[in-house]
Amino acid sequence: MFKRTKLILIATILLSGCSTTNNESNNETKSVPEEMEASKYVGQGFQPPAEKDAIEFVKKHKDKIAKRGEQFFMDNFGLKVKATNVVGSGDGVEVFVHCDDHDIVFNASIPFDNQLLTVIAH
């Protein structure tokens, strides 16, 4: 009887400890609701692994990078898009865009590398 009670007590402590740790890590990374329609998600709260310099660069030049991403689709595909999110990615930047042009609805990301970023900054 004593062994069974001891086993239940230990199992309860171990399981409750794990669930507390898991909830803390979810709160740190969650900036988007748990459930959301796919058509309404535009990349908010998403941050791929990135170098610190890339993240700082995005904060300083977000508008220029967004315009450059929009211009990419206009020049190459003749589509009017709107940049919805700009994030640092690796040692570069990703621009997320949304298009409602010509009955086409899509989201796409455009990776920019360091060489292009130096052109944007100047």
Automatic annotation (TrEMBL):
- Where does the source fall among the domains of life? Bacteria
Keyword Transmembrane assigned: no
Pfam families per record = DUF1672 (PF07901)
**UniProt entry tagged with the keyword Lipoprotein:** yes
Leader sequence range is 1-24
- Keyword list, A-Z: Lipoprotein, Signal
**Region Disordered: what ranges?**
20-43
InterPro entries, A to Z: DUF1672
Write out the biased-composition intervals (Low complexity): 20-29
Q: What is this protein called?
A: Lipoprotein
Q: Which organism is it from?
A: Staphylococcus aureus
